[in-house]
């Protein structure tokens, strides 16, 4: 397969480590150009630092460390403000004037499309319409990314997601023996991410589990904050063999392929 260019679009630093890190490491190892774009610096994330510019700078440094581990050739931030997340799961009341959730879709899409055109991107990853677990900035990534691909003529658009069917089963089992952090509500996953029968791509990234784990570990600021371990910290405590099993597959939906199509590589054209 000749070298191609894939642009991974995420809302905040650390999102790339959780959803697409294995795919990014795999494509880079295969000789493809991998570009990471985030909409915000994540300056309103939960951490053992006050929200604001200093946290944003810290998280961007962590992003560059993660990107280096994964083999990214370029990292860009669109410069929008982190919209934040209220305790009830909606947009935080006090958000910056340039919050990503308030961005003009066409303008934001134009900024991303400029990168896609400059890179002559063959592929763009975004999120599913629900934004995964529903964070408003993630929903906006879907809208902005979808429009940017249309403007730039990017041929392949993959929605990074999770197969919620086995995830729900795993979380319900884990909840019987482990007390999840306060911000983690298993019930939210009943409508989060994507049902298994809608997923088109199941990418085996077990060979790149070491890089994926290192990318997660780079986001030190997101492993703490609040009164208990954050979700990222919990994931990093999973033993190596189990980690490869649990996090060894990454899922995507490609809307121009029939639901249920089984594709194993991002650049695979699927059934003809």
TrEMBL record:
<keyword id="KW-0378">Hydrolase</keyword>
<dbReference type="Pfam" id="PF02585">
    <property type="entry name" value="PIG-L"/>
</dbReference>
<dbReference type="GO" id="GO:0016787">
    <property type="term" value="F:hydrolase activity"/>
</dbReference>
<dbReference type="InterPro" id="IPR003737">
    <property type="entry name" value="GlcNAc_PI_deacetylase-related"/>
</dbReference>
<protein>
    <submittedName>
        <fullName>PIG-L deacetylase family protein</fullName>
        <ecNumber>3.5.1.-</ecNumber>
    </submittedName>
</protein>
């Amino acid at each position: 397969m000749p070298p191609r260019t894939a642009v991974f679009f995420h809302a905040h630093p650390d999102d790339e480590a959780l959803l697409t890190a294995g795919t990014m490491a795999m494509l880079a190892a295969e000789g493809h150009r991998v570009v990471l774009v985030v909409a915000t610096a994540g300056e309103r994330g939960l951490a053992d630092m006050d929200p604001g510019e200093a946290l944003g700078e810290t998280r961007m440094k962590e992003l560059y460390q993660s990107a280096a581990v994964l083999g990214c050739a370029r990292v860009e931030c669109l410069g929008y403000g982190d919209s934040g997340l209220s305790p009830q799961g909606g947009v935080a009341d006090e958000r910056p004037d340039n919050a990503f959730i308030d961005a003009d879709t066409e303008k934001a899409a134009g900024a991303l499309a400029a990168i896609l055109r400059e890179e002559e991107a063959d592929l763009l990853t975004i999120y599913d319409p629900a934004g995964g677990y529903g964070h408003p900035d993630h929903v906006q990534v879907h809208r902005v990314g979808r429009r940017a691909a249309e403007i730039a003529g990017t041929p392949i658009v993959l929605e990074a997601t999770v197969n919620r069917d086995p995830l729900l089963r795993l979380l319900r089992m884990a909840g019987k023996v482990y007390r999840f952090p306060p911000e983690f509500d298993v019930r939210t996953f009943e409508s989060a991410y994507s049902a298994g029968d809608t997923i088109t791509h199941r990418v085996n990234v077990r060979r790149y589990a070491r890089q994926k784990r290192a990318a997660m570990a780079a986001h030190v600021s997101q492993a703490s904050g609040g009164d208990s371990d954050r979700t990222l910290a919990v994931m990093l405590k999973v033993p190596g063999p189990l980690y490869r099993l649990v996090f060894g597959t990454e899922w995507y939906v490609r809307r121009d392929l029939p639901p249920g199509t089984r594709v194993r590589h991002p650049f695979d054209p699927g059934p003809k």
